[in-house]
Design a protein that fits this description.
Glutaredoxin, Glutathione-S-Trfase_C_sf, glutathione transferase, alpha+beta, four-stranded mixed beta sheet, globular, Glutathione_S-Trfase_N, EC 2.5.1.18
Length: 256
């Protein structure tokens, strides 16, 4: 019998939900160790991941501790996707999938994250930084829209781990760009339709149910901050005072 994998995460950010969605798709048992963002740079989490970034997993079935979401996804696919539900056996397809996963890790994630930081979280508006990262977000969306022209999925005729890796950050696009929810993808119809196919999957819906529960437990807003906190400076000040204990009154915080 497969023992549950423990996923260490802070519930607000996108990256843990790539891993949770893959686990749900493969029906691999797991438990979550959810903790506050305040503690990502402290033990015991830094004993697991010295880089202090979520997610990380501990797999008792292989005695492996692993961090970096892309590496975790590749591991889960290699070890647990024995029926090739989210991957392929053939050489070209396997490497194309890794290509797109690397594109998500090196392109979508960092640029979306920096855009959200300067456009939404950082209290001082820096126009040159905002313009740079807004343009990069649109460039990434344009690349995806071109790749998906005439296609349902990135590789082959089925949804794979490479497709699913893009979902959590695309779900935060409205916060990344400071637009209304659902508005950013209207300019990119291929991405919009691809994204809609994925958020309709049962695995994603189940992952979002878990996220909603964990967000509520910590009293977090959809932005990932405690209720009433407006920006990162206020959040850092609260962390320093030790006043960020959640009261379970936040919004549901669903990504999509």
């Amino acid at each position: 019998m497969t023992k549950p994998i423990t996923v260490w995460l802070t519930p607000s950010g996108p990256n843990p939900w790539k891993v949770i969605t893959i686990l749900e798709e493969l029906q691999v048992p797991y438990t979550t160790h959810s903790f506050k963002f305040d503690d990502v740079k402290k033990p015991p989490f830094t004993n697991i991941n010295p880089n202090g970034r979520v997610p990380a997993i501990i797999d008792p079935n292989t005695n492996l501790t692993l961090w970096e979401s892309g590496a975790i996804i590749q591991y889960l696919i290699e070890v647990y996707d024995t029926k090739r539900l989210l991957t392929y056996d053939t050489l070209p397809e396997k490497h194309l999938l890794n290509q797109y996963l690397h594109f998500q890790m090196s392109g979508q994630g960092p640029y979306y994250g920096q855009c959200r930081w300067f456009n939404f979280l950082y209290p001082t508006k820096i126009p040159t930084a905002i313009d740079r990262y807004v343009n990069e977000v649109h460039r990434i969306l344009g690349v995806l829209n071109t790749i998906l022209e005439g296609k349902t999925w990135l590789v082959g005729e089925k949804c794979t781990f490479a497709d699913l890796a893009f979902v959590p950050w695309n779900c935060q696009l409205h916060m990344v760009l400071g637009m209304k929810e659902g508005e950013p993808l209207q300019t990119y119809p291929n991405v919009r339709d691809w994204h809609a196919r994925m958020v309709g999957r049962e695995a994603w819906k189940k992952a979002m149910m878990v996220r909603r529960r964990l967000m509520m437990e910590q009293g977090l807003e959809a932005s990932g901050m405690p209720k009433g906190v407006r920006n990162i400076v206020e959040y850092v000040q609260l962390i320093a005072k030790g006043e960020t204990e959640g009261e379970g009154e936040g919004e549901s915080g669903e990504l999509c």
